[in-house]
Amino acid sequence: MTGRIRTDSALVDLWADRAVFGLDPDEERELARLEGAAGGSVDPREAESLELAAASVALLLASRRIEPLPAALRARLEGGARVYFAARASTPPRSEPRPLDPVAVPARPEPRRLAPWAWLAAAAAAAVAVLGWLPRERSSEPAIATAAPAAAELRAALLRETDTLRVEASGTDLAKNAGGDVVWQTRAQSGWMRLVDLPPNDPQVEQYQLWIFDEAQKHPVDGGVFNVTRAGEVLVPIDAKLRVVKPTLFAITIEKPGGVVVSDRERIAWVAKPI
Amino acid sequence: MKTTLQKVAAGDAAAVQECIDRYGGLVYTLARRMCPAGAEVDDAVQEVFIELWRKAERYDPGIAEEGVFVAMIARRRLIDMQRRLARHGGQDELPETLEASGTDALADAELRDSAAVAERAFAELRPEQQKVLRLAVWDGLSHQRISEVTGLPLGTVKTHARRGLHKLRELLSPSQTPVTGGGS
User: Fold this and answer.
1) CB-count exposure of residue B141 (10 Å: 0-12, 13-18, 19+)
2) pLDDT of residue A58
3) One CATH from 3.20.20.140, 1.20.120.1200, 1.10.10.10, 1.10.238.10 for B109-184
4) Can you give the pLDDT at residue B79?
5) Same structural domain for residues A53 and A176?
6) What's the pLDDT tens digit per position in B133-156?
7) Which residues of A touch B170 (CB under 8 A)?
8) Residue A260, domain member (yes or no)
9) From B40, B48, B138, B163, which residue has the greatest number of CB atoms within 10 Å?
């Protein structure tokens, strides 16, 4: 574990409290504010080293009274692992850097509830999509068709949580016919954009980039760079680079390939504003 | 030589079995201990393992023992479940007993060594730091409940927890921790 200590004691105290006790929503907001104020000087390994210290206590105490894994649960884990890794292995790795992948949405109703294995497969496919294991250029239908149900199911699962935010979106003058919505859950720090009729981009010329305006952050948070490779409806996972506490606006800008660190906000194509 | 999680991250399907064999009992024990009312332990264990497979590539043997990393992922997930259910009317009660009944000793030698390293570090903490950390991490008590149970002021509870945690981090840093293999 790292042994470096930050000088910002309030921040370190909250990291320690989170590692040992967990934080309540007010403390979470304060932590995000402090992290935001610290900006790029925050090293996530510092916070993780405290989590690891707390975990060492858990390991120590658990080791004194370990309970064997029940056979039925072991079988369930093994079955789940087969599904997960089969899904992962079905898509080849690719090289860095990579934008987030939009996933075309099939025209079918979202399921009300996932079967256990469907959830596992969805989680695996989401990992594949989020980690960028899907091919960057999707010229063929099958790759999209394989991943789309998983993305839709994950989005639907997020929507079933009572603390998930859903915001309607609309295109600007740059994408007048575009629409869709944003689904975001602060607790999980994850979400999806459902983009409808956002014009496909040429990745060699420009790319889309999501920005999340957060009440606790001075500057908008980079939500990820992505391409839209086809017309219609696509799902794109949100990849917030910093912790988001209370989003006040989601905006997609058009930027140079690879995205930018600071946007001039001159080409905003799509916005979703929570009420 | 790659660790179990490094092999999992590389897509080695056989390592997944090894991971379940090695850490299944640990995760199950933590889930049994921390799983909030209203949640299924089996579901929690499964969620932890999915998370573990997704996060396996982030494991760095130079930073922490693998068992500690696994325990961290498990705690994150389980604490998240606790908060989710508390928000939906779950409970945060004092366990009937602060000492769980013991069952099997750790069968895995490597994990046993990791626990021994943690135990040596934990033993160096002051008794009140040990007590607060045990009540928080193992018994899952909030700082308010620990204050009530121990009679310590709230601020003192937090101070013991924070100082104890920093001390542990220092003791467990790679420069302080010998490579495992010699047991305790």
Assistant:
1) buried
2) 95
3) 1.10.10.10
4) 85
5) no
6) 999 998 888 899 999 989 999 999
7) 3
8) yes
9) B48
DSSP code of residue A100: B
Same domain, A80 and A59: no
Same domain, A120 and A169: yes
Q: Where are the domains of chain B?
A: 1-88, 109-184
Q: What is the mean pLDDT of chain A?
A: 75
- Contact A56/B68, CB-based, under 8 Å? yes
Q: What is the pTM of this model?
A: 0.59
pLDDT tens for B19-44 read 999 999 999 999 998 886 666 788 88
Query: Tokens in use for A37?
Result: 């104020």
Minimal Cβ distance to A66: which of B104, B133, B158: B104
Q: Which fold has domain B1-88?
A: Rna Polymerase Sigma Factor; Chain: A (1.10.1740)
On the question of pLDDT at A44 being above 70, the answer is yes
Judge if A45 and A82 occupy the same domain: no
Tokens describing residue A24: 């309540």
Asked whether residue A97 falls in the same domain as residue A194, the answer is yes
Give me the domain span that covers residue A179: 73-272
Tell whether omega for the bond before A97 is within 30 degrees of 0, i.e. cis. Answer: yes
Tally the domains of chain A: 2
Query: Does some domain include residue A123?
Result: yes
Tell me, yes or no, whether A4 lies in a domain.
no
Contacts of B5 in chain A (CB under 8 A): none
Complex ipTM value: 0.86
**A49–B166 CB contact, under 8 Å:** no
Q: What sections of chain B are H helices per DSSP?
A: 4-9, 13-34, 41-55, 66-87, 109-123, 127-133, 143-150, 154-172
Beta strands A207-214; A103-104: pairing state: unpaired
Amino acid in the structure at residue A97:
P
Inside any domain, residue A102:
yes
Which residues are CB-contacts of A126 (< 8 A; sequence separation ≥ 6)? A150, A151, A154, A237
pLDDT of B107 reads 60
Mean pLDDT value of segment A145-166 = 72
Interchain contact, B50 vs A65, CB within 8 Å: no
Find the mean pLDDT for residues B2-27.
90
SS3 content of chain A, % helix, strand, coil (to 5): 40, 20, 40
**Same domain as A144, residue A26:** no
Instruction: Single out the residue of A74, A143, A150 nearest to residue A118, CA to CA.
Output: A150
- Radius of gyration of chain A from its Cα atoms, rounded to whole angstroms: 20
The whole-angstrom distance between B91's CA and the closest CA on chain A is: 15
Q: Mean pLDDT, to the nearest integer, of A82-107?
A: 56
